[in-house]
Amino acid sequence: MAQQTITLIGGGLVGALLAQQLAQRGFAVEVYEKRPDPRLSGFPGRSSASCARGTRPSMDSGGRSINLALAERGLQALRTAGLADDVLQRAVMMRGRMVHDRDGNSSLQRYGVDDSEVIWSVSRGALNMLLLDAAEAAGVQFRFGQSLVSADFDAQRIRLADAAGVERELPAGMVIGADGAGSALRATMNAHSPLGERVESLGHGYKELEIPPAGELPAGVLQLSGGRDQYALEPHALHIWPRGGYMCIALPNTEGSFTVTLFLPAQGAAPSFATLPDAAAATAFFSEQFPDLLPLIPYFSEDFDGHPVGTLSTLYLQRWHLDGRALLIGDAAHAIVPFHGQGMNCGFEDTVVLANLLAAAPNDSAEVFAEFQRVRQPNANAIATMALENYVEMRDSVADPHYLAKRELGAL
Ligand code: FAD
């Protein structure tokens, strides 16, 4: 059994799963996570109408997507970790895209011929907490409220700050950064020797809104929406309102609500976030472009004014590691735009590959990290390209009659 201690920065989705995978393979793992333990404090971030009313099951992580599409590549990693059944018990199956046109008509485009080809909607918060529990059960030590400030790779030390800003230094031989798109470890590696970093902004942003469970909506609103059980819309679908240059999507949550995300150009001529400075302007825009969706969002003004506009970029790095001393994984290495719903899935796949490589050669981290990049980088680049292409498909092509005809013929 391998016995090396590994220092992991970031206990988010990828960090927690990687920690569990490494511990299962006999490594001693310490994780330093910036935020407090979400199992004790909830997920920090916005206050929304439904949170205040206590109907939202798990809060979001700082204004980003509060539910995610889990697909086969992520599920396969969870199967390897022995966690797939637990996760699926807390997930809602999505059989296909439910496309809503401007006239209020909707149609389901299935992902496969039957329920063997589906994706799943999972709560980011619930999933993170499940992964933290699993990692702890496997023997991982988590240190919450500890933010990486910098690393001295030559002296093999890291510098951390607690919530009060008090800094301390610790020894750390092998450091792995799962600290997300804004990775502090990446910044400090880059300062030591440049990683060939390129960040391409999409120029579009996003904002999250919420459709509450059907029981919170007036009966008249529900008559036409196609919902059932406790849901205001068909629960087993990823809903899309494609409008050409922009779109809304909605993913179901287990307790009956949907998380809606509006994707729109950040700047420029209407419609863009710049031309929707407040809820009044946004309400007028939604009445025109999403007339069937607006009545399903009773706290539209609070959500719109209270939630930040998120930015979307693709991160490309020439190098993911500093010989055998430091490595980046997940969004820290390859953040992508979310339109293929594959960022987390790709990061989960990373964890299995890395854990297997390290278990096979625990004393040759330089070779392992190089091999990890060699194996995973082409996949990450391909997914980044597909994610960018899928934005055009989701906001535009899915409503195009030519696209639909090709789908009918099985060409797509
Ligand atoms: P993160 O989730 O960002 O976690 C990083 C962790 O590191 C956090 O816990 C953070 O607190 C911690 N951290 C940060 N800095 C420090 C520091 N200095 N010191 C210590 N800890 C630190 N992916 C999908 O697969 N399916 C989807 O449907 C999907 N939808 C998305 C929708 C949107 C709008 C967005 C923005 C993304 C979406 N993604 C989706 C992508 C997905 O969110 C990311 O790929 C995933 O969260 C990456 O996980 P991670 O652990 O690498 O990074």
Automatic annotation (TrEMBL):
Location of the region described as Disordered in the Swiss-Prot/TrEMBL record: 39-61
Pathway assignment: Cofactor biosynthesis; NAD(+) biosynthesis; quinolinate from L-kynurenine: step 1/3
Catalysed transformations (reactions): L-kynurenine + NADPH + O2 + H(+) = 3-hydroxy-L-kynurenine + NADP(+) + H2O
InterPro entries in UniProt: FAD-bd, FAD/NAD-bd_sf, Kynurenine_monooxygenase
Domain FAD-binding: 70-192, 313-378
Gene3D superfamilies xrefs: FAD/NAD(P)-binding domain (3.50.50.60)
Keywords, sorted A to Z: FAD, Flavoprotein, Monooxygenase, NADP, Oxidoreductase, Pyridine nucleotide biosynthesis
Pfam families named among the record's database cross-references: FAD_binding_3, NAD_binding_8
Enzyme Commission number: 1.14.13.9
Names of required cofactors: FAD
Superkingdom, taxonomy of origin: Bacteria
PANTHER family: KYNURENINE 3-MONOOXYGENASE
Task performed by this protein: Catalyzes the hydroxylation of L-kynurenine (L-Kyn) to form 3-hydroxy-L-kynurenine (L-3OHKyn). Required for synthesis of quinolinic acid.
Family note: Belongs to the aromatic-ring hydroxylase family. KMO subfamily.
Name the UniProt record assigns to this protein: Kynurenine 3-monooxygenase
